[in-house]
Amino acid sequence: MSTKEVVVADIVKAHKNPIAELVQVACQFDSEITLESDNRKINAKSIMGIMAFNPTSGMTINIVANGSDEEEAVDALESFLAVC
């Protein structure tokens, strides 16, 4: 299991459709990926989950991945969320 804590940048400015693009990044990996914040845990591959989670600028999120490509998955999501 790989875990990393990130502070979300202003992804709305950096991406045209940040929620859909975040799900697309997560879906590139075989690992199970969850995002956790404030006692909420969602599947990063679920567009409805991401919409409800609503990652916003300044929010602290734990990215947790478990699987064969977990480290790459965590790094890719960190790069997406921490883009400035």
From TrEMBL:
<protein>
    <recommendedName>
        <fullName>Phosphocarrier protein HPr</fullName>
    </recommendedName>
</protein>
<dbReference type="Pfam" id="PF00381">
    <property type="entry name" value="PTS-HPr"/>
</dbReference>
<dbReference type="InterPro" id="IPR050399">
    <property type="entry name" value="HPr"/>
</dbReference>
<dbReference type="InterPro" id="IPR035895">
    <property type="entry name" value="HPr-like_sf"/>
</dbReference>
<comment type="function">
    <text>General (non sugar-specific) component of the phosphoenolpyruvate-dependent sugar phosphotransferase system (sugar PTS). This major carbohydrate active-transport system catalyzes the phosphorylation of incoming sugar substrates concomitantly with their translocation across the cell membrane. The phosphoryl group from phosphoenolpyruvate (PEP) is transferred to the phosphoryl carrier protein HPr by enzyme I. Phospho-HPr then transfers it to the PTS EIIA domain.</text>
</comment>
<feature type="domain" description="HPr">
    <location>
        <begin position="1"/>
        <end position="84"/>
    </location>
</feature>
<keyword id="KW-0762">Sugar transport</keyword>
<keyword id="KW-0813">Transport</keyword>
<dbReference type="InterPro" id="IPR000032">
    <property type="entry name" value="HPr-like"/>
</dbReference>
